[in-house]
Amino acid sequence: MSLLRVEGLRKSFGGVQAVQDVSLQLEAGELLALIGPNGAGKSTTFNMVGGQLRPDAGRVLLDGRDITGLAPRALARLGVGRTFQIAQTFASLTVRQNVQMALLAQARATWRGWRRADAFRPEAAQALLAQVGLQGQAERPASELAYGDVKRLELALALAGEPVLLLMDEPTAGMAPAERVALMELVQGLARARRMGVLFTEHSMDVVFGQADRVAVLVRGQLLAEGAPEAIRQDARVQQAYLGG
Ligand code: ADP
Ligand code: MG
């Protein structure tokens, strides 16, 4: 059974059919890239999976369980995580304190968390920081981090929730090309090690064709193609509609 199954999602805004009958599948430990031109419906699809938007039609299944229309908080309890921008109030805290806050929030959110006393140990935060390569920055205020390291901290905060499915909308936006690949290589390694599925939207073709296991192409709200990166790269319809080849 697939970790994530999206079946026939639809969403309109007024007269605009933003997403029309989109179906996707994602396996544990894999990265699925959602690509397409601006306005193709990537974020809308993403927000329906993440509970920010309620679909007009269709279903979202996590491990076979219908999670359609659940709120982000309920989804978080089921293991659906999302990278997010660091809240202003966290900027003055150190990197380690940010992660500790996220671990405590997770512990409070679930009975499982309350029973897991290790959320309260400093070593738990340190271990997460090591996983994203920030162990050397633990005692610096988050506000002093370089942009690429802020992205790593966002990733650590999301991982504190122990997601089985991680949603990342344009995780590498604003990063230099080499940094983008490095971040998504890190995400790929974490996905493999944790058996975590990652759904992400991405503009950088280096990342899409380098790190994604599967690629889904949206054009004008419809799924144009879905498959392995190499097949997508060679698909004439994709080249015509999107890659400009
Ligand atoms: P992408 O992320 O691929 O750039 P979006 O999902 O953001 O595309 O947008 C798809 C279409 O839906 C666009 O035509 C956009 O203008 C429209 N749209 C998205 N969100 C809203 C909204 N909240 N209200 C009205 N129209 C929206
Ligand atoms: Mg978008």
From TrEMBL:
The ABC transporter domain, residue ranges: 4-245
UniProt superkingdom: Bacteria
Cleaved signal peptide residues: none
Family note: Belongs to the ABC transporter superfamily.
Name this protein carries in UniProt: Branched-chain amino acid transport system ATP-binding protein
Species assigned in the record: Melaminivora alkalimesophila
Upper classification of the organism: Bacteria, Pseudomonadati, Pseudomonadota, Betaproteobacteria, Burkholderiales
Part of the intact protein present: 1 to 245 of 509
